[in-house]
Specification:
- By secondary structure, the protein is an alpha+beta fold.
- The chain has one domain (2-240): Phosphatase 2c, domain 1 (4-Layer Sandwich).
- The protein has seven helices and eleven strands.
- Helix 1 packs antiparallel against helix 2 (69-93).
- It starts with a strand and ends with a strand.
- The mean pLDDT is 93.
Length: 241
Amino acid sequence: MLIFSKSDRGLKRDENQDSVYTGFLSDNSAFAVVCDGMGGVGGGSLASSVAVEEIVSYINKSYTRRMSRDSVLSLMKNALTSANMRIYEKAKEDPEFDGMGTTAVILIVRNSFALICHVGDSRAYLISDKISQITRDHSVVQTLLENGKLTPDEAKSHPRKNIITRALGVEKEVLPDLTELHIEIGNTVLLCSDGLTNYVDESSIIKTFEDNDISEVAEKLVDIANANGGGDNITVVTVTL
């Protein structure tokens, strides 16, 4: 498996509140985490970095190659729950960080399966001969779309576009979504923060995969997001089977 990543402050933010981790587990399964923090100066970056630190530590300590896929998904969910509590408690300890939180999307690619656990609107996509969104945004706009109150075009410029309905650290409890997906040799799973998807549409993403070596895609996508305005932090991870 091949893993590449790129995280960038963008052109208009003072700091990068995204955090990212990529690596391999004890059985050489690919492992990646993307978190997009929120919560004012310092709060978002603290929330996202604490989340990544806790998720990576939790999974590395508990993961074994003998686990079933269901057990791995449960482990990912528990890691998010643990990260949620750590951020929540830190926010309660220091009023300066009250209300801080972060999205999170975790990926483990094991044999021919992608296992995904997420909260918020950082996304996972499957890239094959087309692009398919795997995760469902936990956002106000997504709910309006699903209820038929917005069209996809209206959603792109909706004033509440960035308001998410689930995040780590905001409430004492959190409900992650779990996804299990069979993938083929040559497929790529793309993880990203909304700094990519708000500035680069799906047709441009798939074209970037088609036109570039996989080792260059993450950096190229960040460059395109910046060329299109770069109004947010941008994080991209590609994991290719």
